[in-house]
Specification:
Blueprint: H1 3-10, E1 28-32, H2 36-42, H3 47-68, E2 72-79, H4 87-102, H5 104-107, E3 114-118, H6 126-139, E4 146-153, H7 155-171, H8 182-186, E5 199-202, E6 221-224, H9 234-246
Parallel strand pairs: 1-2, 1-5, 2-4, 3-4, 5-6
The protein binds 3-methylbut-3-enyl trihydrogen diphosphate (IPE) (2 copies) and magnesium ion.
One 3-methylbut-3-enyl trihydrogen diphosphate binds near residues 33, 34, 36, 38 and 93.
């Protein structure tokens, strides 16, 4: 039996793996779940069914990441720029998000996962805000993976908000301008409680940040696939991790 399977067994999980080195599983994986629209279009389905299928895939991936020992998973669900989409799509997406949050304990692995939302939450409907509060409280004591859902999230928006907070701290005399460090700054971000991502996975072939975790991904390893998000399964996560484990992370050193 491989080391990895022994590790799984120790955690009470039976099953075959995968080729992942269990000693070097990324602590924090970020995902840009892209390609739902193209997935639906290919099948001549309404776009929302692509988003719905995408959310089913997320549930599987949360469970799998938890199983293999990933501690933090941060997924891009709705960007600050996604409001530019047609009103019908935005409305349907918000309805879907609300539905998933309401059933997060079942639908997003919330029976074990600790679920949190990052982003400009005040810009969401009061109903969604209420549900976010509920889910965060109800899953807050779970001991499994920490699932962070980026909702109405934009990296630039996050940085601007952090700067405003910093200015307030300086004005109030909580800190002097000269004393501000990178660490202090990073505690003002939506992700203040998170380590930086080790690995970014982006599906559907796009090779850009799209305003995701701009500060946090300074030294994150990127992995892209042409596969559309609703077609993703556990084996692609393995593929990404195996590739990640071959990388030499130098952080600017030698
Ligand atoms: C990603 O899928 C999900 C969201 C942005 C909400 P898209 O809707 O961007 O899918 P494509 O890129 O059009 O295929
Ligand atoms: C990024 O995907 C946002 C989410 C996956 C939620 P987009 O589809 O919005 O990104 P662009 O427009 O292709 O850069
Ligand atoms: Mg897209």
């Amino acid at each position: 039996m491989s080391l990895f399977n022994r590790l799984l067994k120790k955690r009470g999980i039976e099953g075959e793996s995968t080729g992942i080195d269990p000693q070097n599983v990324p602590n924090h994986i970020a995902i840009i779940m892209d390609g739902n629209g193209r997935w639906a279009k290919k099948r001549k389905l309404p776009k929302i069914l692509g988003h719905r299928e995408g959310s089913n895939v997320l549930k599987k991936i949360v469970k799998y990441c938890d199983k293999i020992g990933v501690k933090y998973l941060t997924v891009y669900a709705f960007s600050t720029e996604n409001w530019k989409r047609p009103e019908k799509e935005v409305d349907e997406l918000m309805d879907l998000l609300l539905e998933k949050l309401k059933n997060a304990e079942k639908e997003l692995g919330g029976d074990q996962a600790q679920i949190k939302v990052i982003g400009n939450i005040k810009g969401l409907s009061t109903e969604i805000q209420k549900e976010i509060k509920r889910v965060e409280e109800s899953t807050g004591k779970n001991s499994g993976i920490c699932l962070n859902i980026a909702l109405n999230y934009g990296g630039r928006d996050e940085i601007v908000n952090a700067v405003k907070d910093l200015i307030t701290d300086v004005e109030k005399g909580i800190i002097k301008k000269a004393e501000i460090t990178e660490e202090y700054f990073s505690k003002k971000l939506y992700t203040w409680y998170l380590p930086d991502p080790d690995l970014l996975i982006r599906t559907s072939g796009e090779k850009r940040h799209s305003n995701y975790l701009l500060w946090q991904m300074a030294y994150t390893e990127f992995w892209y696939t042409e596969v559309l998000w609703p077609d993703i399964n556990e084996s692609y996560i393995d593929e990404a991790i195996i590739e990640y484990q071959k990388r030499n992370r130098r952080y600017g050193g030698v």
